[in-house]
Automatic annotation (TrEMBL), chain A:
Subcellular location: Cell membrane
Protein name per Swiss-Prot or TrEMBL: ABC transporter permease
GO cellular component assignments: plasma membrane
UniProt GO MF annotations: transmembrane transporter activity
Chief location category: membrane
Entry annotated with the keyword Membrane: yes
Pfam families: BPD_transp_2 (PF02653)
Keywords: Cell membrane, Membrane, Transmembrane, Transmembrane helix
Membrane protein topology class: Multi-pass membrane protein
Automatic annotation (TrEMBL), chain C:
Species whose genome carries this gene: Actinoallomurus iriomotensis
Assigned GO CC terms: plasma membrane
Keyword Nucleus: no
Protein name listed in UniProt: ABC transporter permease
PANTHER family to which the protein is assigned, alphabetical: GUANOSINE ABC TRANSPORTER PERMEASE PROTEIN NUPQ (PTHR43370:SF1), SUGAR ABC TRANSPORTER INTEGRAL MEMBRANE PROTEIN-RELATED (PTHR43370)
UniProtKB/TrEMBL annotation, chain D:
Keywords assigned: ATP-binding, Cell membrane, Membrane, Nucleotide-binding, Repeat, Translocase, Transport
Organism of this sequence: Actinoallomurus iriomotensis
Membrane topology category: Peripheral membrane protein
Annotated ranges, domain ABC transporter: 8-240, 257-501
Lineage: Bacteria, Bacillati, Actinomycetota, Actinomycetes, Streptosporangiales
Protein name (Swiss-Prot/TrEMBL): Sugar ABC transporter ATP-binding protein
Pfam family, one: ABC_tran
InterPro entries noted in UniProt: AAA+_ATPase (IPR003593), ABC_carbohydrate_import_ATPase (IPR050107), ABC_transporter-like_ATP-bd (IPR003439), ABC_transporter-like_CS (IPR017871), P-loop_NTPase (IPR027417)
Localisation per UniProt entry: Cell membrane
Keyword Cell membrane set for record: yes
Length: 363, 327, 418, 506
């Protein structure tokens, strides 16, 4: 019975996620009570606020960016490549795509397409730098992507200057030329609020499906997973490790390029000093929380976004909203701990099951 | 566009409005404690609380957040009956543009921006270049080495305005003066406003290379620069609020002056005007003319007889004879 | 942590003597190159005592993180959570020193707070077998949350404090080696070749030292001694090389890993103390600002060995000092050095018959030189990140002879060997 | 310690692993000052038992007495404290540490980690003729030297009871002789040796007493004089042993694999494969004999395209493989049974049917175009499981849950399904039980009859001699000799392998 329940990896994930959630709520409650706040009413306030239409829209919109970011990270993780550079990749991509979209006026559809393609290309190319450094010079991608995040900031700052790619947007704000109406993607209305859902949420969904399909159904995905599961076995099976590193990084960077698109085409229409930052780093945590799978990441990014959004009410109630960061870290850590335990138990059950079926228990 | 508030005590008559006034304020990244304009805004809010005896609520921003987060924050305040609501920083422009029309009875103010054209939005703008011009002149006058410095926190248009005014003021006094200019970080990396270690290193470098006065427009990083000044026994010029007041006893002698950007005054006056019913929509400019911008004279021994020159320049700016550049 | 898939047969490890002379030679060579550069370009800040002092100040926190990373990884635990541990360190230093009024208790507080971060990492990775990177990332999320939460509770009501910062903290006394400052200072002013440069170096390193700087410097040889010349160190390193073998010889692998990771956290904590109390005068949210990650880079750069790790931190600190102090001019001057260096590398590679590598170096080197001669200064925006660019370039062009501990990042279960 | 007490007594030891009872009610008495051999086939539970005695694993049931005193061993330290030392089946050495460091690790209290320890090591090394240099890095040592370091480690701790778990598996006969010399010395010094092996002639020559373990339990304890190797083997297996042999020759003169002047260098420029030329024909099995670490692994990787050639040409039939990627080579018709199935042959955490795809990611029935053909792969996995007798409940279990022998059969089945022209079989029956062993030999013979060319690498000299049409000897990367499998004995081959008689020996 139990082995049947544990046979499927998603049941294991589910059990792990549930236990972890309970655990992190417990931790959060303890911290709250120690500091003199009432946990149930705090959670209730967050929940009440979180289920208002405004918050739902904001949560979904935010989750789209988180989701893409985590997917980008997960592509690398699936083959033990650690792309910390998603942050720089998406910012550079969004900036150049915004500049291109603002500079060129094109007919609708083509305009949007061009912007997105530019973003994907820039993200991919910027990610190719650490990939090439790794395969030709053996530079650890952990270091190179950290450094390239900083360097990307420098490049963006250089280009984002009036006279280069930027225009003055207000007395104190600069940004790329605003993308004209033909390049925008109007938001989708949501009942009960003026906030609009980014229509490009669909990109995130497509990317998720594409990711799933690529990983599970294509030869390339098989090679990628094989490399992640056992580098040595993959190489012996004919996988070209260098090529895989480059491909995976470029794909990861390409997806990273998409991160800014829902926001850019659906809301801000310009890359200004006010463009959201840091999504690439959040994506690492979310990818890990979602166990690098498209479905897990979806739940993880929704949870993360929900916590982010609903934490606003805490500030309003004079509770430090950083309690949410504690919850997030606790979820992340406990999910992995619990999953570790669950899968070890699962593996043991599997082995016992195999032995039992073969009648070899008395070895 | 429903007003949606549950306990919306929006507006009300002008006369007895005072009693129902609850003041909301949303900070820019950095929030309370940045020793810069968020703190100044907070000071204004405290004054509101003490002198006008009003309820206040201040909410913090998160680094890297999106416009939707800001929209929600402003709405949260407006919806819960806070009126007026002050948004600190131009980063709120887009968000305010969406929220203000939904709450026509709520008075909003935004600091450092004037792109939102709404009847219920007041733009609190500052002529930082004017004050910077004056402290630039002061620096050039004070300098014996003919070399001074400018440390910016993050290279944004706002901070470049400080730089431009400072440079122009210094050149006015001494056209051949050497000015070292350095920013700590580049946008969108705003860590330059809170990296005292780097603020210190940069200022030290400037002093080492001959500068004897350094103007630091770098938020919290300035505290590091001030330390460098004190240990090099050279001059330091603060920004936004009077940094002589907050400096430690050992550092006070080296704070020559500060360029004052009275966000506190602006916030206080705005709230007061809402209470009085005299609120003004559109641009409210704070400059030398209306004491919204000034330079500090809390260290008179450092300024010495310089004040005459400075006051003279100040008059020329007020009268329009001199127009310090913005970039 | 990530298996090296590009097959390069293991390098032969030279003996200690050779390594030491090589390090000295490289150090000396770089110093002479810098002097030449100063002469050619006239940028006197290149070897000034101020630059050297700033280098030290910038390198110490990075170096502490890097040293911490080295301790942890030598025991086989990858520590990407250094950033978070440093953050704990800054806060711990502020908390303890502010409420006690004693800077030394601040040091203790930072060490303890960092060590607690390390302990968390150890519990997750060693006891629960969580992937090291996951745990590190979680710590990096946790730390800013916890510190801000605590600051909100503890610092907001204090004068000058708030959710994002502590009130001003008591400071450490600073020391100078007596009788060094003045004479060297005057020597330095003459800009005499070598003499003034050496004077700058020595004066920068010996004057206005905070005890934390001294402690940081001291911890490099101490780490070396502990890890390479004591039984404890041998046991610790054996856990990073082959924990199964270590266990089979009665080494308490879990205990050693715990010790290493906690020490790692404590070291990162010292880096935090330095940031909060020496480099500035209060705790500040976001003060660590990526230094933990850069420390990690310095550690890899330093090949997991203390001398080289310190060198990596020093290189980063130096370029950062140069760009912060000298700005565009001094960094522009560095282009000359980089260009010439690359050309030299090209010649050497050509001599070793590695044609492609030689060509790449030559082309890049020539490009850099052209850039140098065609411009007067570099864009400010780019100059800000010259330490990062330098790190990347050095890693890309220096020969790759890095060797991480063999079992680094491996999940190890007690009794897991077969 | 009275000499009449047995050095070690194990009573009723039972140890269960999930799904497996590794030891079941084991009873053994080891007399002091003797060499006591424990034999049993792969997976019989020998190593588990020894790990229990060494404190690395806790028994579920049973008692352990050392020198007549009942003990509870919680960790190796406890065992070490009681004078027990163990040389493990797989080397327990840290490559990046020096010999000295490896030896003193955990026993620093004895003589520190410096000069005193070095002198002590040199002393022991001299006393037992081990020839160990304390300051070398372990990674620079060959297998024989590593083995001696392992023994030195145990002696350094002053162990009175020595456990050697399959110490001879990686040694050539001459090295085995040396080792036995060492063991006799040890015995003379009053030490007790527990010696595990399944090379029965060795056991008979060195042991005073032999205990046979089968399927986790003790079946008999005998004296070497009372049994023959054959009887011992049948005790061990419970049935007759398979014999590796080929019948009539099927060798044709159609060359399949041709290597010409192949040289591979490591980063330091040393030639690890040095000017190797050989040809394998259709229907021919060419065996490569050599002490481990003499370039066999690199030779294989060179053929597979996993290592770049420094010089030379590799051809498959008329196709020039030089410079071709591994995948293309596999597609051209090379099958590969790797030496280390866990590292190079399987995705342990993946189900069997995904393991079927590994190495054949570009060929039907596993793929359609760029997509994975799950159904095709599954069906073909079912076929392999059936044809190759892979014992598994279904094809959705992970490869890790199969026993080693079954994992190996899956690999053999998979590599045969690609219709290879050339099969590289590196230690195809290492760590595999007798049933699986004979099945794998059968498959090789069968494929050979159908024209397959095989490159066979093995440390098991009987297998090598019995299964090869042609034998070549590799030493320090060079092919140094050729032998006729029909006439050569393992001893002669062994001396060729150590370079004792360079040149051809007929
Ligand atoms: N740690 C473990 N967890 C689960 N099963 C194990 C473990 N160690 C050994 N086994 C199983 O216990 C059985 C006995 O293994 P053991 O290693 O003792 O055999 P052995 O006699 O030493 O074989 P060999 O000759 O291959 O060394 C095998 O079936 C093996 O799969
Ligand atoms: N540490 C371990 N944890 C879990 N399972 C193990 C462990 N060690 C061995 N096993 C199990 O033992 C089996 C094979 O392991 P191993 O490589 O040791 O071969 P073996 O036990 O000697 O078997 P064989 O002799 O048949 O190859 C696998 O099924 C594996 O699941
Ligand atoms: Mg085994
Ligand atoms: Mg065994």
């Amino acid at each position: 019975m139990i082995h049947r329940l544990f046979a499927r990896s998603w049941t294991r994930t589910l059990v792990a996620a549930f236990v972890a959630l309970v655990f992190s709520i417990a931790i959060t409650s303890i911290v709250l009570s120690i500091s003199g706040f009432n946990p149930p009413s705090t959670f209730q306030a967050m929940f009440e606020f979180g289920k208002e239409p405004d918050s739902i829209v904001n949560t979904l919109n935010k989750a789209a960016g988180y989701y893409l970011s985590a997917l980008a990270v997960a592509v690398g993780f699936r083959m033990n490549l650690f792309n910390i550079g998603v942050d720089g990749q998406y910012r550079l991509a969004a900036m150049l795509a915004a500049a291109a979209g603002g500079a060129w006026s094109l007919p609708p559809v083509l305009h949007q397409l061009v912007i997105i393609v530019v973003a994907v290309l820039v993200g991919g190319l910027w990610a190719a730098v650490p990939a090439l450094l790794k395969v030709t010079r053996g530079v650890s991608e952990v270091i190179s992507t950290i450094m390239l995040n900083f360097i990307a900031t420098g490049i963006i700052a250089y280009l984002l200057n009036p006279g280069r790619l930027a225009v003055q947007l207000g007395p104190n704000n600069i940004g790329t030329k605003t993308i004209s109406r033909s390049g925008r993607v109007p938001g989708t209305p949501f009942p009960g609020t003026d906030l609009k859902l980014y229509s490009l949420l669909v990109i995130a969904i497509l990317a998720g499906v594409g990711f799933w399909f690529m990983i599970n159904r294509t030869r390339f995905g098989f090679d990628l997973r094989a490399t992640g599961l056992s580098q040595s076995a993959a190489v012996a099976s004919g996988v070209d490790a260098r090529r895989m590193v480059v491909m995976a990084m470029v794909i990861s960077g390409g997806i990273a390029g998409l991160i800014g698109m829902p926001q850019l085409l659906g809301e801000s229409y310009t890359y200004s000093l006010n463009f959201p930052t840091g999504i690439g780093l959040t994506g690492i945590g979310i990818a890990l929380l979602g166990r690098n799978g498209p479905v897990g990441i979806a739940f993880a990014s929704l949870l993360w976004a929900f916590l982010d959004v609903s934490s606003q009410i805490l500030d309003f109630n004079d509770i430090p909203k950083e309690i949410v960061a504690i919850t997030q870290a606790a979820v992340l850590l406990s999910v992995v701990v619990v999953y570790e335990v669950v899968s070890r138990v699962g593996q043991r059950i599997d082995q016992r099951h195999v032995a039992a079926q073969l009648g070899e228990v008395a070895a | 566009a429903g007003c949606g508030g549950k306990k919306a005590t929006t507006g009300g008559g002008g006369g007895d409005g005072k009693k129902t006034l609850k003041v909301g304020l949303a900070y820019d990244v950095g929030g309370r404690g940045d020793k810069s304009f968020n703190d100044a805004a907070y000071a204004g809010l405290q004054k509101v609380q003490q002198e006008l005896k009003l309820d206040v609520k201040d909410l913090e921003a998160k680094e890297g957040e999106s416009d939707n987060d800001k929209i929600q924050r402003l709405e949260l305040l407006a919806k819960s009956g806070y009126n007026p609501v002050v948004a600190v920083g131009f980063v709120y422009a887009t968000a305010l543009g969406k929220v203000a029309p939904k709450y026509p009875n709520t008075k909003f103010a935004i600091v450092d921006d004037n792109t939102i054209q709404q009847p219920n939005v007041t733009d609190l703008l500052f002529a930082e270049q004017e004050g910077s011009y004056l402290v630039g002149a002061a620096a050039a006058k004070k300098s014996q080495t003919g070399s001074i410095g400018f440390v910016g926190g993050v290279q944004t248009p706002l901070i470049k305005k400080f730089e431009a005014g400072y440079v122009a003021g210094a050149k006015k006094i001494n056209p051949k003066i050497k000015i070292q200019i350095k920013y700590i970080s580049q946008p969108p990396d705003f860590s330059g406003f809170k990296d005292p270690a780097k603020g210190k290193t940069i200022a030290q470098g400037m002093y080492d290379q001959g500068a004897d006065v350094v103007y630091v427009a770098a938020g919290l990083s300035g505290s590091g620069s001030l330390e460098a000044a004190a240990s090099a026994k050279k001059w330091f010029i603060g920004v936004d609020s009077d940094q002589w007041q907050t400096a430690s006893a050992a550092e006070k002698p080296y704070v020559m002056t500060s360029m004052l950007k009275r966000v506190d005054t602006a916030v206080f006056n705005f709230v007061k005007s809402v209470g009085d019913g005299t609120v003004q929509k559109g641009d409210v400019r704070f400059s030398l003319k209306n004491d919204g911008i000034d330079y500090a004279t809390s260290n008179p021994s450092a300024l010495g007889d310089m004040t005459t020159t400075l006051n003279d320049l100040k008059q020329q700016i007020i009268s329009g004879k001199i127009t310090p550049p913005e970039k | 942590m990530i298996e090296q898939e590009i097959r390069t047969p293991a390098p032969r490890t030279g003996d200690r003597e050779r390594r030491r002379t090589r390090m000295l030679a490289v150090g000396g060579g770089i110093f002479i190159a810098l002097i030449l550069l100063r002469l050619i370009t006239g940028e006197s800040d290149i070897t000034s005592s101020g630059t050297m002092g700033a280098t030290l100040a910038l390198a110490v926190p990075i170096g502490m993180a890097a040293l911490g990373g080295m301790w942890s990884e030598r025991s086989g635990v990858v520590n990407i959570g250094l950033e978070g541990m440093m953050t704990f360190g800054t806060w711990g230093a502020a908390f303890a020193s502010y409420f006690s009024g004693n800077p030394w208790l601040g040091l203790l507080g930072g060490i303890v707070a960092g060590a607690v971060g390390g302990l968390l990492h150890a519990v997750a990775t060693v006891t629960f077998g969580v992937d090291h990177i996951v745990s590190g990332v979680a710590l990096n999320i946790l730390a800013p949350g916890v510190t801000r939460y605590l600051s909100d509770l503890l610092f907001t009501d204090e004068k000058g404090g708030g959710a994002t910062q502590s009130p001003p903290l008591p400071s450490f006394p600073t020391w100078s080696v007596p009788g060094v400052g003045k004479p060297l200072g005057s020597l330095e002013k003459h800009h005499w070749i070598l003499i003034s440069d050496l004077a700058g170096l020595v004066r920068g390193v010996l004057t206005n030292l905070s005890p934390i700087t001294l402690l940081g410097i001291l911890l490099v040889p101490v780490s070396y001694y502990l890890l390479w010349h004591t039984a404890f160190g041998l046991r610790l390193r054996s856990c990073g090389e082959n924990p199964v073998a270590a266990e089979s010889l009665g080494v308490k692998v879990y205990r050693m890993k715990y010790a290493a990771v906690v020490v790692s956290g404590a070291l990162a904590g010292i880096g935090g103390v330095f940031l909060a109390m020496v480099a500035s005068s209060n705790y500040q949210e976001g003060q660590v600002n990526g230094r933990g990650y850069i420390g990690l880079a310095a550690m890899i750069f330093g090949n997991w060995r203390p001398g080289m790790v310190a060198g990596g931190a020093g290189l980063f600190g130096y370029t950062d000092a140069l760009q912060l102090r000298g700005g565009a001019g001094a960094v522009h001057a560095m282009l000359l050095l980089i260009g010439i260096g690359l050309l030299a590398l090209a010649v050497w590679r050509g001599y070793r018959r590695r044609v492609v590598a030689a060509a790449v170096s030559a082309v890049v080197g020539a490009g850099v030189l052209v850039w140098f001669f065609l411009t007067d200064a570099l864009p400010r925006e780019i100059v800000t990140y010259s330490p990062h660019i330098t790190t990347l370039l050095v890693l890309a062009f220096a020969a790759q002879r890095l060797r991480m501990p063999a079992a680094d990042g491996m999940r190890y279960r007690r009794g897991g060997g077969h | 310690m009275s000499t009449t007490e047995p050095a070690v007594e194990l009573h009723g030891i039972t140890k269960r692993f999930p799904g497996v009872v590794a030891n079941h009610d084991i009873d053994i008495e080891v007399a002091a000052g003797t060499v006591h051999a424990i034999v049993g086939e792969n997976g019989a539970g020998k190593s588990t038992l020894m790990k229990i005695l060494y404190g690395m694993q806790r028994p579920d049931e049973g008692t352990i007495k050392v020198a007549g005193v009942e003990v509870a061993l919680h960790s190796p330290s406890d065992a070490i404290a009681r004078g027990i030392g163990m040389v493990h089946q797989h080397f327990m050495l840290a490559d990046n540490l020096s010999v000295l460091e490896n030896v003193v690790l955990g026993a620093e209290r004895l003589h520190g980690i410096g000069g005193k320890a070095r002198r002590r090591i040199e002393e022991i090394s001299h006393q037992y003729g081990l020839g160990v240099e304390p300051d070398r890095l372990v990674e620079q040592l060959g297998v024989g030297a590593r083995q001696r370091v392992e023994i030195l480690k145990v002696l350094y701790r002053g162990a009175k009871i020595l456990i050697l778990d399959e110490p001879t598996a990686v040694l050539v006969p001459q090295e085995v002789e040396e080792l036995f010399g060492n063991l006799r010395d040890l015995k003379r010094e009053g030490l007790t040796v527990i010696f595990i092996s399944h090379k029965l002639d060795e056991v008979l020559s060195v042991a005073d007493t032999i205990t046979v373990i089968r399927r986790g339990t003790t079946v008999d304890t005998v004296r070497p004089g009372d049994v023959t190797a054959r009887q011992l083997a049948e005790l061990m297996v419970g049935s007759e042993l398979p014999v590796p042999e080929l019948r009539e020759s099927t060798v044709t003169d159609v060359p399949v694999l041709t290597m010409d002047g192949v040289t591979v260098r490591d980063a330091t420029g040393r030639a690890v494969v040095d000017d190797v030329s050989l040809t394998i024909h259709e229907g021919e099995i060419l065996g490569i004999a050599g002490v481990e670490g003499n370039g066999q692994a690199e030779l294989v990787e060179a053929i597979m395209g996993m290592l770049p050639l420094d010089a030379g040409v590799v051809r498959l039939g008329d196709t020039d493989l030089t410079g071709m990627a591994t995948r293309r080579r596999r597609e051209a018709g090379i099958g590969f049974i790797p030496e280390d199935r866990h590292r190079h042959g399987l995705l342990l955490e993946s189900p069997l049917w995904e393991n079927r795809i590994l190495g054949h990611q570009t060929r039907p029935p596993n793929v359609k175009g760029v997509l994975i053909d799950r159904q095709g792969a599954r069906n073909d996995t079912e076929r392999i499981v059936r044809d190759y007798d892979v014992r598994t409940p279904n094809i959705d279990v992970t490869a890790a849950s199969l026993s080693g022998g079954n994992q190996q059969k899956l690999i053999v089945g998979r590599e045969m399904s690609g219709d290879p022209k050339l099969l590289i079989a590196a230690h195809p029956t290492r760590g595999v039980d007798v049933g699986a062993q004979s099945a794998i030999w059968d498959h090789l013979r069968h494929a050979r009859a159908e024209g397959l060319a095989v490159l066979l690498i093995s440390a098991d000299l009987d297998e090598l001699i019995g299964m090869s049409d042609t034998l070549r000897v590799i030493l320090r990367g060079r092919l140094v000799g050729e032998a006729d499998p029909a006439t050569i004995t393992p001893d002669q081959l062994g001396s060729l392998m150590t370079g004792a008689g360079e040149g051809s020996a007929a």
